[in-house]
Design goal:
Layout lengths: L7 H9 L14 H8 L2 H8 L6 H12 E3 L14 E3 L2 E3 L3 E3 L12 H12 L3 E3 L7 H8 L4 E6 L4 H13 L4 E5 L9 H6 L11 H4 L2 H5 L9 H11 L10 H7 L4 E6 L2 H9 L4 E4 L13 H12 L4 E4 L6 H9 L4 E4 L1 H32 L13 E3 L3
């Protein structure tokens, strides 16, 4: 790209000459509080909430905060290039938008708005199986931009096959299989509001438009939506799946397959042995197991175990450009950003998502340069120290 991501700050300052200030905060950690003030408790709780008492989400942030960057001086950082090779693709920066379902609860333009924002900046958009918009419509909104498909692996193998076929036909190039949600965790913020969008038929668009899903219904979705919802609930996830079952996915998907939700080095090794292409070190943003290991604390062990065999990606807790730097230093090739872009969407639609992407990458660009690096490739464990907890 022409110029640097960091140039966004000068654009903001120049706009200020005519009295314009950014519509949203440039400190992305402030977006959650703003979203809490402006949106209803059900939708906000669904996005911001975590498993149990929230200890895992807090641990994710604490682990990233505990690692401190050690800047180096008098290195030539005048020309910088943030691009990285990930799964055989060249990305403009080590960033993709994480799969987050049910985005219509945050903004009426939902997934297509977030996908268009990602496409405009060249950042891969990962569409959730549980999106509020059918995958074909999201693909159409993106043109030929890089898009990946996240699979919640259903009980019904016919639906799994159908999803993979549709995703492939719609130009999704990488399959991201989420493994950490064979059951929905205990989430008090949702429970206290009795709020689960799927039961209202929201976040079910890929299923309700799927031929294999519809074939299993006694009546069409439109005639008996309640029965369709109940069928969805019964087959959405499958706690009986084991490692040998991955062969089915490999058989029906010829692009890269990435397993999301890996925290233990041995699971990462099993992923490599099963012929997978990558893993996402993630605890689902603290939404699945309360009291779990912080994702950033799991990252070095996984990277050490399989970094030479698999592409190691990271999510859970990324909020700032400095967090991106730290994740790379701890062994990730790139990061997935979740909640912040969803807050941006809720607050200002597509423009809000664009703002979040540009702020994050401007700050990352500046962090990189000010720490003595002209690109992500030279960032490593020697750039960090562990501070007091």
């Amino acid at each position: 790209m022409a110029g640097h991501w960091a140039d966004f700050q000068y654009e903001i300052y120049l706009n200020g000459m005519s009295g314009a200030v950014p519509r949203l905060p440039t400190d992305l950690t402030r977006l959650e509080e703003l979203t809490e003030q402006r949106l209803g408790p059900g939708p906000v709780g669904y996005v911001a909430g975590s498993a149990g008492d929230g200890s895992t989400a807090r641990a994710n942030r604490a682990a990233l905060d505990r690692h401190r960057i050690v800047p180096r001086m008098l290195r030539d950082v005048h020309e910088r290039d943030l691009s990285v090779e990930v799964l055989g693709r060249t990305l403009p920066a080590p960033l993709a938008l994480a799969p987050v379902g049910v985005l219509s609860i945050m903004h009426p333009e939902a997934e297509p708005a977030a996908a268009r924002a990602a496409a405009a900046r060249g950042v891969p958009y990962i569409l959730s199986s549980a999106s509020s918009t059918p995958m074909e419509q999201v693909a159409e909104a993106m043109g030929d931009a890089e898009r990946w498909f996240q699979l919640y692996w259903p009980k019904d193998p016919e639906v799994a096959r159908s999803f993979l076929g549709r995703a492939k036909a719609s130009g999704y190039s990488v399959l991201v299989v989420t493994l950490d949600t064979p059951l929905l965790s205990w989430r008090p913020r949702d429970l206290d509001q009795a709020y689960l969008p799927f039961l209202r038929g929201v976040g079910t668009a890929n299923y309700f438009t799927d031929p294999a899903f519809r074939a299993a219904l006694a009546k069409p979705v439109e005639e008996d939506p309640n029965a369709a919802v109940l069928h969805f609930v019964s087959m959405f996830a499958d706690p009986s799946k084991t490692w040998p079952d991955l062969a089915l996915l490999r058989e029906h998907w010829d692009g890269p397959i990435v397993l999301k939700g890996i925290l233990h080095p041995d699971d990462a090794r099993l992923a490599a042995d099963a012929g997978m292409d990558g893993v996402v070190v993630s605890n689902h943003g603290g939404r699945q197991v309360a009291g779990a290991l912080a994702a950033a604390d799991a990252l070095p062990g996984v990277a050490e175990a399989v970094g030479d065999r698999l592409t190691v990606l990271f999510d859970s807790g990324i909020r700032t450009g400095a967090d991106v730097f730290k994740a790379l230093a701890l062994g990730a090739r790139a990061v997935l950003l979740g909640r912040p872009y969803v807050y941006g969407l809720g607050l200002d639609g597509q423009a809000g998502v664009d703002h979040v992407i540009r702020c994050l990458l401007a700050e990352f660009d500046l962090t990189l340069a000010l720490s003595g690096h002209a690109g992500p490739a030279t960032v490593g464990s020697s750039d960090l120290v562990e501070g007091p907890a």
